[in-house]
Design brief:
Elements (H helix, E strand, L loop, with lengths): L1 E4 L2 E7 L7 E7 L5 E4 L6 H13 L7 E4 L5 H4 L2 H7 L2 E4 L1 H8 L1 H15 L12 H4 L9 E2 L5 E4 L2 E7 L8 E5 L4 E5 L20 H14 L4 E4 L8 H23 L7 H6 L15 H20 L3 E6 L2 E6 L2
Parallel strand pairs: 4-5, 5-6, 6-7, 11-12
Antiparallel strand pairs: 1-2, 2-3, 3-4, 8-9, 9-10, 10-11, 13-14
Helix pairs in contact: 7-8, 8-10
The protein binds zinc ion.
Amino acid sequence: MQGVYQNIFMEALPLPNNPLKSLNLFIIKGDKRSMIIDCGFNTEETREIMLNIFEKHGLDFENTILYLTHRHSDHVGLATFLRDKGLEVYISRVEGNAVNDPNHTWDATFKNAMLQGLGEDNFKIEEHPGYKYALEGMLDYTEAGIGDTLSIGGYDFEIIDLSGHTPGMTGLYERKHQLLFCGDHILKKITPNITFWGFEWGDSLGTYLKNLDKVYEMEIAHLFSSHRELLANHRERIDELKQHHAKRLAEVKKALSLKEYSSVRDVTKHMHWDIRSRSFDEFPQSQKSFATGEAHAHIEHLRHKGEVDFIQKDEKLYYFLTV
Ligand SMILES: [Zn+2]
């Protein structure tokens, strides 16, 4: 157990075979009701750890709410398990809809993979870790609305929009004590994955960068991120993240300049990835789809800035530089 602030505790939930290593589970203890933020993969091991956490912190199921920052399985995996025990669950409508309509979400992921040119890699959704550890059944939830307040443990948490990493991610901000629970918006050492969600969701990298700027301006004494160690200075980290994406955008432009028309897969192959494989063709399948999704988000950001455009041929997109 680690007390990170008055009435606030942090526990680590292991994420097997995942580079994120573990999820930081936050517990806010109150007299009448308590809250936990996010809940880990849906595995037997995590269920057991979760029950031990409830016992250790003296939490009872009926008077604890579960706040979910976003749809990813390492954050929502145990949500229906906990709801069935009596917890009230909060999540934004966009994320709640995605959780409750997995077929739509996975169909979109598959369709995007085809647009990106992963057809030749025998892309299979079943090998995606988010698919393997997803929650079971439908999730009844209370909608977490932007601007709403949750009062727990002497704190007033305001729900804020942190979309970008996913289309409807939210965070909890406590203005008086300057605390922000930011989900995967800002992480120490690792760059949050920003992917292409489909054309209906617009420029995900642009949305992400805009929300980095928003958080930069906020007064934050303690930033509670969902993975790795906690950060001391949110502004320093935001500067680093913005620099990282600026470099990535330059890399994408360089890759696009190599050919007249490039698929997202072509661009991805020419970018640098910290994966121990000799070439893109040898990447494990899940890494291929993470990498192309990230490349695609950068390409689309350039398109929204008017620097890139595409043509579509045989279900596949071919991008080119316009300037
Ligand atoms: Zn995430």
